[in-house]
Design goal:
Layout lengths: L6 E3 L32 E4 L15 E5 L14 E2 L1 E4 L8 E6 L2 E13 L4 E8 L13 E4 L5 E11 L8 H12 L10 E5 L9 E7 L1 E2 L2 E2 L4 E6 L3 E7 L20 H12 L3 E14 L2 E13 L5 E11 L3
Parallel strand pairs: 1-11, 3-4
Antiparallel strand pairs: 2-17, 3-19, 5-7, 6-7, 7-8, 8-9, 9-10, 10-16, 11-12, 12-15, 13-14, 15-16, 17-18, 18-19
């Protein structure tokens, strides 16, 4: 696919950069997340019984637990966890040596991670020896696919990019692509989002995300890189290495056609407290081998005393093919 020169400078606040400890955890780290890029929000209000009995034959809606729901007082019943951490006792103590960017790393098995909405299961290995800890005292790690290829790497640093003073984001992107061209085929991506460091917002790193779209919805087989303001690349996440079956998704769907299904699910969750919702972002993913649209949804509901409350939830809507 021919690459465009479009670089979207996003103003979204990214999560503060960190590297997860290699102790088993259910918390997301930058390498574990996909930020849906620049999807336009869709705002709806509570219409009078709009499509109340809409059939779900064209799309089933699931509530996903990504650990970000607020303390809303709502007892959510989740259909899926966004990420599942387990320990395979048969792999405990397993050591491996992996090469990346011409360097070899000694590893020891820590845990197995399943990315539910990305249909990927990987083994996480902690680095050993002098590379065990990063500058913050947390353990560096590499996550491997079943064929032992690198799915993600969090290492402080993986490599350093020489960033010139006042260098543009276009040039920074080009520098990163040149440094990683032997590991990643960037020509397969049509779009790239670059979020610059923002001292006032409290984060000092660049986020670069390469992706493609289908029907103007970003697809989740992306490459994402986190780079500190000084040029240290600390996280590389390569979901493009997993076949999500997105090429088979039919070309005539859109998020609007699934709004009745989303609303029906929200009414089931919030019942008479439901007021409205807004789709903040969406991305095409895959659960159990079936493509779906994964949405971050800002909800409004009534607390029973006349006040409106807000929460952010994640939903997955299966795409009828």
């Amino acid at each position: 696919m021919k690459k465009t020169n479009s670089i979207l400078a996003s103003s979204m606040l990214a999560a503060a950069i960190a590297f997860s400890s290699c102790a088993p955890s259910t918390e997301n780290t930058p390498a574990d997340t996909i930020a849906p890029s620049a999807s336009q929000g869709i705002v709806t209000t509570a219409p009078e019984e709009t499509e109340k009995n809409a059939s779900l034959t064209d799309g089933q809606v699931l509530l996903i637990n990504n650990g970000q729901c607020g303390e809303s007082g709502i007892e959510y019943v989740f259909d899926y966890e966004d990420m599942i951490m387990t320990v395979d006792e048969n792999k405990v103590g397993t050591e491996k040596t992996v090469e990346f960017l011409g360097k070899q790393y000694g590893l020891v098995y820590n845990q197995t991670v399943t990315y539910v909405t990305h249909n990927a299961t990987v083994d996480e290995y902690c680095l050993t020896g002098d590379m065990k800890l990063n500058r913050y005292g947390n353990e560096n790690h590499i996550r491997l696919l079943p064929d032992d290829s690198v799915f993600s790497i969090s290492l402080d640093p993986i490599l350093k990019i020489d960033i010139a003073e006042n260098e543009s984001v276009e040039d920074i992107r080009a520098d990163v692509e040149k440094a990683l061209q032997n590991e990643i085929d960037f020509d397969k991506f049509e779009f790239c989002n670059v979020t610059e460091p923002n001292e006032e917002a409290g984060y000092d790193y660049y986020t670069l995300t390469w992706f493609n779209k289908k029907n103007d919805i970003p697809m989740s087989d992306t490459v994402r890189i986190y780079m500190l303001y000084d040029g240290d690349i600390t996280t590389i996440w390569m979901n493009n290495k997993v076949d999500l079956g997105l090429n088979s998704v039919r070309g005539d769907f859109d998020i609007e056609s699934y709004l009745p299904h989303i609303e029906k699910k929200l009414r089931e969750i919030f019942k008479e407290a439901y007021v409205s919702y807004e789709i903040k972002s969406s991305i095409i993913g895959n659960i159990d081998g079936k493509p779906c649209i994964v949405c971050d949804i800002s909800t409004v509901y009534n607390d029973g005393n006349g006040d409106d409350l807000h929460d952010l939830i994640e939903m997955a809507i299966f795409i009828n093919q």
